[in-house]
Amino acid sequence: MSLTSYKELLVYQKSKQLTVDIIQHFSNLFALKVRP
C-alpha cells in the first residue's frame, strides 16, 4: 500500500469518526429538547 493511500485512509477514518460524533451530539441535543 502506498503512503498517499494510507494517509487518505486515515483522513477518511477521522472524518467518518467526526461525522459519527456530530450525529451523536445532535441526537443528544434533540433528545434533551424532546424530553418533557
SSE topology:
Elements: H1 3-34
Descriptive notes:
- This protein has one helix at 3-34.
- The protein has 36 residues and is mostly helical.
- It has one domain (1-36).
- The model has no long low-confidence stretch (mean pLDDT 92).
Which short descriptors sum up this protein?
36 residues, mainly alpha, 1 helix
Shape field: rod-shaped
* Number of distinct helices: 1
* Unreliable residue stretches: none
What is the total tally of β strands? 0
The secondary-structure element order is H
Quick description:
With 36 residues, the chain is an all-alpha fold. It contains 1 helix and no strands. The relative contact order is 0.10.
